[in-house]
């Protein structure tokens, strides 16, 4: 696991891609970055699995409202500007709506249209070579031990429709920065956050097939299994370091 020192993390400000971020999204990143530098002990691994160009889905587990920050940081450190797949209600929140529009993020209206139609903007973004960031569970995990739940099929649907890879990414530690149900950040002492990406999930045998419930469930299961396996690695590594 590669640890990133505060000085190294601060230096990433000048290395991260800026083109395509939009003014308000870029401003939000610049405002939040010092907090990440000062209050997070970041550990990252697997950035080499994120392709440098072309459409790709980054699929994360979901523990906390700070997950999107960790996910955006990871994407930028992987030299990709992410387009966040998020609930459409965020586009109706003052200030937040400017950030979402500026960054070219993708609203999803849940329960109002068919799944294929709701995800059409995401598919178009992927076909245009964008990096789309999503949380397949659709909400925070309800597992008392923090393990990922069964994922929804949206990630599988848009990846298979666009013919792009899905890179599974596990996050752990964000729940210590902002626990579910809390509105107060726990910044001190500095919290460790691990972000680990794995090799793209093998969906080759499902490409080109009709997107039936069976196909989507199979693809979704593979994505969630990959995320869970990597999360297990993070957690066992932490337990080992404590017992050593």
UniProtKB/TrEMBL annotation:
It holds the Pfam family Acyltransferase. Signal peptide: none annotated. Keywords: Acyltransferase, Membrane, Transferase, Transmembrane, Transmembrane helix. SMART domains: PlsC (SM00563). InterPro entries: Plipid/glycerol_acylTrfase (IPR002123). GO terms for molecular function: 1-acylglycerol-3-phosphate O-acyltransferase activity. The chain crosses the membrane at residues 22-40. The keyword Transmembrane applies. GO terms for biological process: phosphatidic acid biosynthetic process. GO terms for cellular component: plasma membrane. This is 1-acyl-sn-glycerol-3-phosphate acyltransferases. It comes from Lentzea fradiae.
